[in-house]
Amino acid sequence: MFRKLLFIAILFIGHSSFAQQTYTVNGMVKDTTNQTVPGATVTILAGKDSLSMSTGIDGIFIFKSMQQSVFSIKISAIGYASYHKTFVGANKAGAFSLGVITLKNEVRQLDAVNVVGIISVKLKEDTIEFNAAAYKVQDGAPVEDMLKKLPGVDVDKDGNVTAMGKSITKVRVNGKDFFGGDLKTATQNLPANIVQNLQIIDDYGDQANITGVKTGDPEKILNITIRPDKNYGYFGQLNLGDGADQQTSLVGKNEDDRYLGSGSLFKFNGDQQIAGLANLNNTNANLFTFGGGGPRGGGPGGGGGSSSSSSNGITTTKSAGLNYRDQWGKKISVYGSYSFSDNSVNTISSTIQNNTSLTSPSTNNYSSNQVDEKINHRFNLNIEYKIDTLNYLKVTPTITYAGINTLQSQNSVLNQNGALVSDYNLNSTLNSSAPNFGTNILYNHKFITKGRNLSINVSAGSTALTQTQNPVYNYLAGAANAPANQLISTNVKLDSVGANLSYLEPLGKRSFMELNYAYHDAHTTSNKENDTLATTGNRNEYSLLSNDYAFDFITNRVGLNYRFIEQKYNYTLGLAAQPALLSGYSQLTGVNTRVTTFNFAPTARFVYNVSRSQAFNFNYSGSSNQPTYSELQPVTDFSNSLYPIQGNPDLKPEFNNSISVRYNKFDFQTGNILFAGLQFTQTDDKIVA
């Protein structure tokens, strides 16, 4: 028997770049003093096609997609006369070197500027941009390793990323969603050496990006920009590993085989990008992160997946995915992805809890063995149609599916004052499926009058949850606090539709008035049937634990915003009125729910750009959140006897008031960077279990 750790890793790592070009073109730009010229704009012209790039700190430029026989080179740089020359590249093999190209000084040349280093950070109004060249990592390292070097950015052991204290929720590549915005899929699979810069963006949504009117609480996203010289060709990577996991315990040594296999293949060809990923392992390494497992009663297209991120236990993962992006003609841009994951998680846990008390000390011994089988599918597509210079249309359909089968066995023993109070075993099975369908349509029209704009956003979705649970208790000592054998069937469906309209009217060169209206209707039906099973297997409906419940949550929001824009600062002031109706009815209990609320939601946003390297932001927003079907149903859930939960049909929607303040400063000479932020949220009618 082998007693030493056996590990065979990285049998093959392929990193190649082979596009359909026949040769590359390279050269170096210098001035008359034989000094390199960084930042010069180099444009190559071949027929009707053109491609531009900037020289690096060493003055070098490389074009890797040449197959035309004749091409021209244009070079321009501040303080130098422009350069233009035609070359014949026919029958060239490999690299066609243009050698050193010397730029002559212009007559009106300014005083010489010495380049002493790379500007590592640029601060914009809602964007912090990090130059990848300033943060070196090892060859073959993923983007995640580069993120760990960025100031103000943290990456935890599970790959979750926070920037300036706020979680990054989405990732884009060259401005478009990558695998539906799945963060870890990009950061752990894209190689760092193809990155030009990393941008941390406060994103207010598609509508705000088009109109420029930013309201509400922004979402922090990561945008990865690919280097122009890496935006053409193929590259991939394959990793294989095998070994033994040795765990020493009080009862001896336990050895389990561990294996890992992952592969990726990327094709970049300008606007066209294709990525394929696959993963097979039992080392808790997940390729994709899927969302929650059923309808919460939120917006259209919500929900849709059991979590397959890092968790406790041993996870066996099978996953694969494909991401596609292309430009169909001059007006249509298409990008989307499909992701699949089949996870099996085995979690064995044991807990001893000692509760100290002078009068009634107790000890609770709890052990559990749980196996979860999780299936996830996710498909999303984005179609952007720039109809003309005044009209824009974006259609985004999404489809997700989440299925989970769970087997669980538990044992709980409670001793109090040295005497046995409770001892029971639980064997439970759970089977659930949650399909989800949603579509979002955004239309924007810019009027001929500069600044006048109309935007309409319509969304609809349907989410369902079908779940069967069978908890079986065997009480060995103490009183039974839940039925011994239950069969709990739950069927939930959420149908929702929403619309958002925004009209922007210029009042002057720097001021605008926005009128907006939003409507949302979410209709939820929930049928929960709880049967207690006799020893003969006959079902006995337990009406106190069952319910047939339906409710609607309808909101109308009308708001008026004033926006003023100056070169160094801008601000938005507004006020919205939001009436809401929550109405529901229980078929079994006859309990009616009808709650109306009315909230005023002020909006305040102030941005002051102190300098090119300093910025101050203040933002206030208000929003409401409805209770879920389980929080409203007036029945008790005894699926976990240690934690029974009863809903409240009189719950009101909660209303959140959020304030955030942020200050950023960067010193270009020292490279020091400072991020300071404060966030405060106050909630009316907070919903808690």
Describe the structure in your own words.
This protein is mostly beta strands. Among the domains are: 23-103, Sandwich (Immunoglobulin-like), CATH 2.60.40.10; 121-231, Ferric Hydroxamate Uptake Protein, Chain A, domain 1, CATH 2.170.130; 524-529 and 546-689, no CATH class. Helix content is 3%, strand content 62%. The protein is built from 4 helices and 37 strands. The strands form 6 sheets. It has a 19-stranded antiparallel sheet that branches. The chain has a 6-stranded mixed sheet with strand order 9-10-16-17-14-15. The longest helix has 6 residues, at 206-211.
Task: Quickly list its features.
Ferric Hydroxamate Uptake Protein, Chain A, domain 1; Immunoglobulin-like; six-stranded mixed beta sheet; 37 strands; 19-stranded antiparallel beta sheet; 689 residues; disordered N terminus; mainly beta; 4 helices
The largest β sheet comes out as:
19 strands, antiparallel
How far from one another are the termini? 53 Å
Shape: globular
Strand content: over 45%
Number of discrete helical segments:
4
The helix content, as a percent range, equals under 10%
Compute the gyration radius: what is it? 30 Å
**Please, what is the oligomeric state?**
single chain
Q: Low-confidence spans: pLDDT under 50, at least 5 residues?
A: 1-21, 109-116, 248-255, 296-310
Mean pLDDT: 80
Number of DSSP E strands: 37
